[in-house]
Amino acid sequence: MMRQLATQHAEQTELQWQAQAAIEKAVVEQHAAARETFALFAQTIGQDMAEQNRALVEQSQALAGQLQAIAALVPAEGEQIRSALQQQSAQALTSQESMRFQTDKKLNTLLDTTHRTLASTRENNWAHVFHDTIRQSTWFTAPTLSPGGWAVGYPYCYLLYRALEQAKPQDILELGLGQSTRILSQFAAAHPEMRHCVIEHDPVWMDFCAKEFHLPANSTLVQLDLETKPFMDTEVLQYKGFAEKMAGRKFDLISIDAPLGTTNEKYSRVDVLQLIPDCLKEDFVILVDDYHREPEKQMAELLLETLKKAGIPVASRCYFGNKNTFIIVSESRKFLHTI
Q1: What is the mean pLDDT of each run of 10 residues along the chain (339 residues)?
Q2: Is the dihedral of CA 15, 17, 22, 27 positive or negative?
Q3: Going by C-beta distance under 8 Å and a sequence separation of 6 or more, which residues neighbour residue 142?
Q4: Are the C-beta atoms of 219 and 187 separated by less than 8 Å?
Q5: What does the alpha-carbon distance between residue 280 and residue 221 come to, in Å, rounded to a whole number?
Q6: Each residue of 295-332: pLDDT tens digit?
Q7: Following CA atoms 250, 253, 259, 263 in sequence, which dihedral angle do they give, to the nearest 10 degrees?
């Protein structure tokens, strides 16, 4: 029995080895067939790639010939194309610049119209405020005025009247004879204890104003010629002998509306800078007309810098109308820059 089992086991083992050998042989044969197939496939691919490379070389050579032909045409036809493109580009830029110019022109016109409308509205408002303010005045009893143009505007008239009414200045310096003089002369007539000095360069204008309104005894009209003198890095129109004429005097109100303010692009009406701060009383008010112009703004800035360097605290503000007015006041008169 045992011998029989052993014989069967041996037979099974032999069969297993035979099967394993057959499988290995089949695998080897398959590998060999696969290698042969891959080699054939590689050979075919290589031939195709070689054919493709040859085709690419031929195409490249043909293309190079075409490029040479095109290059031969470029100097003539290419220049015509570039010229046409440049002309079209120039025309487009010209058209664009023209459109931009027209747009800017329309925009500037609109802004200018808006600015003028706003300025006129403000001027009209100040006219109403001024007339309401002087309605019950005890000293401004002949309120015949013609503000605007070269003369002061309604913001200036209002600020001047309020400064006179509230601060009661005793020494007034007025640069420029005109509409402001109409107000100041009536204040001087009602307050004979105070002094009012007017500086003017034009004798013809002085004669005309003398026929229009009367100056009281405490209003002094001084005629000073104009001359162009060096100032900072430029030359500015100024009153001749102004500093010498005003030497030693002190004022608590200065009205600046002269000399002519359109002769220099940097500075204007710089005369008082020769006197500041020595010409100022402890309590003072300074009014600057035409503050919408750059030269007057620059002068006012220098005035403020001078006061600051002198250690004099001040308050200032711009009032807007057809023409702007700038007011500078000492600390004690600070309420006047908020009226």
Answers
A1: 52 55 57 61 64 69 64 60 67 73 76 81 93 95 88 95 97 97 97 98 95 94 96 94 96 95 85 96 97 95 97 96 96 88
A2: positive
A3: 182, 186, 213
A4: no
A5: 20
A6: 999 999 999 999 999 999 999 999 999 999 999 999 99
A7: 110
339 closest CA partner among 131, 172, 136, 155: 155
**3-class secondary structure per residue, 129-155:** HHHHHCCCCCCCCCCCCCCCCCCCCHH
Do residues 175 and 199 lie in contact, with contact meaning Cβ atoms separated by under 8 Å? yes
DSSP secondary structure of 198-230: EEE--HHHHHHHHHHSPPPTTEEEEE--EEEEE
Q: Rounded to whole angstroms, how far apart are CA atoms 155 and 44?
A: 102
Report the alpha-carbon distance of residue 178 to residue 152 in Å, rounded.
Answer: 8
DSSP H or E stretch at residue 54: helix 2-73
Supply the pTM of this predicted model: 0.70
Per-residue pLDDT of 251-278, as tens digits, reads 999 999 999 877 778 999 999 999 999 9
Amino acid, single-letter form, for residue 306: T
Q: How far apart are CA 27 and CA 153, in angstroms?
A: 116
Q: Look at strands 325-330 and 195-200 and give their pairing.
A: unpaired
Question: Tell me, what's the pLDDT at 39?
Answer: 62
**Residue 217 neighbours by CB under 8 Å, 6+ apart:** 192
Cα of 138 vs its chain's centroid, Å: 46
- 70-87 pLDDT tens trace: 556 555 566 676 676 667
Whole-number Å distance between alpha carbons of 16 and 13: 5
